Structure formats: structure tokens, C-alpha cells
Amino acid sequence: MKSRYVKICFLFIMISIITTMLYACTRPITFQVDGISSIAVSHQGSFYVNVNDEPQETFLKGVNLGATIPGYFPGHLAISKETYLRWFDQIYDMNANVIRVYTTMRPIFYEALHEFNEGKEQPLYVLQGVWINEDYIKNLNDAYAEDGQIIEAFISDTKDLIDIFHGDKILPVRPGFASGTYTADISDYVIGWILGLEWGPDFVIGTNENNAGMAQFSGDYLYTKRATPFEIFLAEVGDTILQYEAETYQMTRPLSLTNWLTTDMLTHSNEPDEDEDKVSVNTEHIKTKNTAFAGMFASYHVYPYYPEFMNYEPEYLDWIDPKTGSPNPYKAYINDLIDAHDMPVLIAEFGLPSSRGVTHLNPDGYNQGGFTEEEQADRLMSLLTSIHETDAMGALIFSWQDEWFKRTWNTMDFDLAWRRPYWSNVETNEQFFGLLAMDPDAPENMHHVDGNLSDWENIDPISETDQQQLYVDSDERYLYITLKDDAIDWSNQTVYIPIDTIPNQGNNHATSEQLTYTINADFMIIIDGVHDSRIMVDAYYDATNYLYANVLDMITDAFHNIAINSGIYTPIHHVLNAEFTLPETQNIIPFNQYEAGLLTYGNSHPLSHDYDSLADFYFGDSFVEIRIPWLLLNVMDPSTKQIISDFHTLNEDVFVPMTATGFYFEALIKTNQETITMPVGMYDWDEWHEVMYYERLKQAYYDVQEAFLYMN
Prior knowledge:
Helix content: 10-25%
Largest sheet: 8 strands, parallel, barrel
Strand order of the largest sheet: 6-7-8-11-13-15-16-19
Shape: elongated
């Protein structure tokens, strides 16, 4: 009897489960339930937008929009309404259907969006992010610490945004935060939330460990199953904002939570850094109730070059893309990610920078930096195609605009953090992810290494003889040098340009080149043909070598006791990675760096048919033009003339700035018969505290424009 009862109960349970599953698979897409409406829903692995009361399945294609322009940090919120309107028009013309913002914007952003979308049958939609104060995270390391300081601030900011969506909010002035009166109702254009940021594993672990044993959450809209305390924290925030908007404005919208490879739910057996795979944030543990009919989707930032498992995971390296017949580790990972989710997956960030500097290498050539703008476009198209060929619900490019304020780990020790927005550091790749370039000036006004000397017509030489003239100038990005001699074929000569940037050190000779000169040069430019030209640094003033040998003890220092005026110059390097061991294969990946001072021949003019955005020098019939990034001259901030001081005398683990009083130049031209030496010339420049900049669409914009046209 008991056995029969159990069987009957089991049968009823199975019928109930099957009925629920069938309902879930067949229930209609709806944009309104019990008087609550939504303009978009996430449903059965896809994303739908309400178009004339009909569900339109939509592939989200767009960009991440940064919060600032050159000369300002994000907290300054310096972008004007006119700029937003211009950008929206360009993004819309690129055939994008959505932009993502990371935090609360000023009223003019929402006003511009409302104005731009008025009268458009297909508007430009927004995915709204909510940021968390990273100082709170660093100090508390627990979402529930200090009576829930983080979660309370998180919820408060989301509620403010809901009021903002509906044009009904006044935010008081707070330094570094948006404020003002919000009256534009843009609630019909916000198609979803993407809450939070790239979670640091220590913050996740701290929350989990400090709140172990926490009961699962059950709210009015969301509930959790097998969730960790950190996932419960996210569910609480999500439930609160869904409830607030439904009760206050009778609206709701799809919900997503920011995630990235470091805290995904997959296991990466060949990841060498335990911090990159030691904890997961699994949004599948957060469930929706019928009241949350707009649904949820997962959002991930996915770049091809980092963490290291993207470069070394055998399963991904061996995966053959059926579309191309070639390995495609990036697409393999995204497929794995999508397969691990029941909810749709949005690739909310992906991209590659058109920077001179490189931070990380990828075996398939999808490096973090070192690409021309044309190469950036080609590789970006490949990533976009890979995403679109999976079952991802969308792809958002990082980023719309280049951002001067950004830093990168392998250059940040050599500049001044508080002055980054005031100059453009081409060695820092994070500044150059944009589709929209932010140049120091318009192409017709800038110096270029392009074979045209018209940009030097109104500039006096700093040194000259009867036959030669040496010119120097600068802007927010480069130091420019032009050397003229009507009687010399520059492509067949070797040119040396010693530069004295800091007093009381440097070399008055170059031993390897058998040269002597008047100044005590800290740097020496060598132009020796198309493939073997470079800028080198006095071994005594080699900041990279000093940092990684003397301070971090990662490499052997060949010049530990080197004296001033040794006559030794060394190549300028930037570091790519420390030594590490791959746990699955046990392969040892050695310490790696690249020669950042190697100079590239080409035409740097953006309007030229052979434009090379990474070109460093160019020969003309009677001249050579050179441009050197400020950072390669140990300049920490050109806008206040700060250079790295003599680090050998400081006994500190950091580089300390000092003010430059001008740079001194010589030029030596070595021919078959003799070495011609020009007189010493001095170049100085004025400080600046405001910047002028010029917006220019890169090649990637036009390639994306064409690709987006056919992605629906």
C-alpha cells in the first residue's frame, strides 16, 4: 500500500514537472502582466523588444559608452548634451540598436536620449548599469559588512535610477557623482539592467565566508536555489528594484548582473593564476517568479587574451570552428559559457585596442595592443563574427570612444595617476579601445610623419648649419623631430640623435656606436633603415629594468652597479608577463617583455591612403621625420613637465617625478666618409591644464557599420 502511494505521488510530481516545463516552453511572450508592463523580455534563450505591440526577436548590437572626454576623469561628468546628440547620431548610423552605460549619468544624457529618439520608429535603446563604490569594496570586502553599507548604497542608486527613467528625480550635488533635476521620461528606451561590475574574487569570497550559512532568498520577484551569500546579495538587490518599479510606476524590465571570465561558473584546468578561477558567481542560482515576467539574462565581459586559460586551455586551443575549419578558442569559450546557462547570454564587453603599447599576447594574434587601426578593425570583425555565430543574444563593443584617463599595469608605474586625462599615452593600451579616436588636434593641424613638411613651415629650427636643420615640437601625445639636409639620401644613412632630458647624469659617448658628443644624453634615437631603427636609453636610466630587477626581483639586473656616463645604451622594454607554470600541462611560460623602443616606418597621416597609425618615422627626399611617445622619454606627465628623477639615489620602491627644464638635442649623421655633428639645440615647452582634442572615426567604425547592418 505504501509502495503504491509513493508511486502515485511520484507520478503526480512528474506530471507537475512536465506540465510546468511544457508551459514554460509554450507560454506566449507577453509585455504586460497584471497591469505591469515592459518594453522588452528575455524569453527561452532569446531577447524580444516590443515593437508596435508585437514581440520582435532582437540581436543586441551596440557599444559601451564611457563617461568622459580628454582632460577629465569620469567623475567630472564633462560630456555635453551636444556631444551626446552627435554621438547618438553616429552610433545610430553605425546600425547599432543599443548603448550601454555603466552608472548614473547627468540629466543631459537622458534628455539627449529622449530628444534623439523622438519620432523614431526604431529608437536607440539603453542598457543601464549601476556601479558600486570600489573604495567600499576594498575597505569592507563583504557586501553585508557595516550593517549592509554596500548593499544599501547599491539599492539606493538603483531606486534613484528608476525615478530618473521616469523623469521624476532630483539628485543632490555629490563630488564625483551625477546630480541635478531629471525630467526626461526615457522609460520606454531602457531595455534592461546590467548591475554591478567585474567582481574581484576576494570580494566574492569575503562575502561568502563572512555570511556562511545564510538562508536562501525568496522575494516577490526573485528567489535563489543553492546560491552563495554573494549570489543572494545580488538577488536581494534585483528583487528590490523590480518591486520598486512595478509598485511605483507599473513597469518592469529584464535584469542582468555583470560578470566576467574570472568569476564565471566554468572550471579552467590550465589557468595558472588561482585568483582567476577560485570562485564563481552563478546567476543560474537566481530564479524569477511569474511576477518577473521580463526575465533575466547573463552578461559577460569576454576578451580573447586574458585570463591565461584563454591562451592555453587545450580544450579551446584544439576546438575547430565548423564555419572556418580553423581553431577558434574565443568562440569555443563562448559556446561553453552559453551551454552552461539556461538564460540568454549577452557578451556585454569585447574589443581590442589600437595602441602602440602592448600588455598581453595571444597565440592567435588577438593581442592586448600593438595594432594599427586597420588591424584593430580586422580583428574586431573576427570577434564580432564569432559572437554572432554562437547563440549569444548580443554583442557590445568596448568602447565607443578612446579614454585618455585610463591606465595599464605595465606602464602605470611610469606616469602620474592624477594627470592622466591631460595627455594621450600611446603606450597605455587601455586608452585606445574606442571606435572614435580622440586625437590631440585635427588631422590638418597635427604633426605627422608623412613626407610632407608643411606642418613645420612656421617653426624655427633648434639647431642648424649651412646644410642641416633640426626641428623639435610636441603635443599631448608625441615629441616630434625633423632633420633636414638637401644633400643627403636619408634612406642610406645612419642618424643618431642623443637627447639630454635630466641633469647630472647621462652619457657623452656611445661605446657600441663609437660615437662621442657634447651633451650628456639619457636617450639616443638611431635611424638605421626601415627595419632597424629604435630609441635606446642610458642603462643607468632604464626604468623598466630597474623596476623588475631591483624592486620586484623578477629578472637579473645586468646593470645593478652601473655608473653614470658608462657609454652603455639599452633597448627600451615593456613587460608582458611574469614567469608562470601551466597547471595542467606543466609548461613553464618564462618572463616576457618586448622592445617598446623599436621604431616603425610608415605614414602616420589619417587621411593618407597608406595610413599607419603606429608609424614612428618616415623618410623624405631630403629629410627624416620622427615622433617619440612621451613615455619612452621617461616623461611622467608632459602637461606639467614631470619626468622620472634619478631613481638610483632615492632608495624607494616608486618612481618620483621632477620638473624638466628643457631637453637638449644633438644630431650626428654617419656617412661613408665622415660623421657630421650638428650644434646642440634646446627644446622647451609650456605646461597646459586644459586640452584641445579632435574626434575622428576609426576604420573599425565603418567595418562595424557594415557588419551590424546584416545582424538581426
